[in-house]
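Protein modeling request. Please complete all fields; requests missing the sequence field cannot be processed.
Requester role: graduate student
Desired output: 3D structure, token encoding
Chains: 1
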Amino acid sequence: MTVIAELPRVRSRARARVRPPEVAAAIVLGAVVLAAVAPQLLAPGDPLAVSPVDAFSPPGLAHPFGTDESGRGIWTRVVHGTGASLSIGAMATLIGTALGVVLGVAAGFGGGRLPGRIADAGVSRLLEVLFALPGLLLALVVIAFTGPGAVPATIAVGLATAPGYARIVRSQVVRVRRSAMVEAAVVLGRRPGTVLLRHVLPNALAPVVVLATLGLGQAVVWASSLSYLGLGAPPPAPEWGAMLSAGRTYSTTAWWMTVFPGLAVVVTAASATVLGRALARRGSELP
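Delivered output (287 residues):
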């Protein structure tokens, strides 16, 4: 009997074990956040300072990632560009999740009443139209109206990611609204606002945190893509997508100008994805 009673505890410990890829992803994201908050600790130089005599220097002791056409250190620019790229991705994720929560709650909380059915039908049709367009194409449509720049790119990526969050939030709100807990609160005479704030939102928004972690990597990639196309941060700003765009002309002679900014985008997005999937796995294992 003692052995059988201990089995669940052993399984819970096994499930709580941290995997090496998750540790590596956490370390990488920690370094990315450090570079975004305090870039001078990792790269004390000026990312905009030019030195024509050092132009197109390959990676070496003086410049670990080489230099660009103006002699600016790629390592310094990659580190200092972390703040711009990460802030654009984080703000775009925040915009997308906030808008998704508003649309998802408006569609899923109405219940069987006529205003609720109208709101659900309207939001659902809007999401279907938005889902018909690929996310990056939708961001390009938004920028066509707002114009290029870092702020419009942030808004565009946020609006492009909102439909995915809205669909998940709606399904979660509908599931929680039909639960016995919410039905008991309604029978007890709780106001709709109280039911929404105390019962529905705390239980429906838990998956959104996991989705936002996954979406951060996607937002960083999309923001860098817009900058690569010349629609985001303008050169010579030390932003990863803008650096990729500036280095594509010299890709055959100075490969380091595109390889290292590209690696920064890929590693950051991959680390966010690994951590997001780890959170999702741990959430699904909870009793």
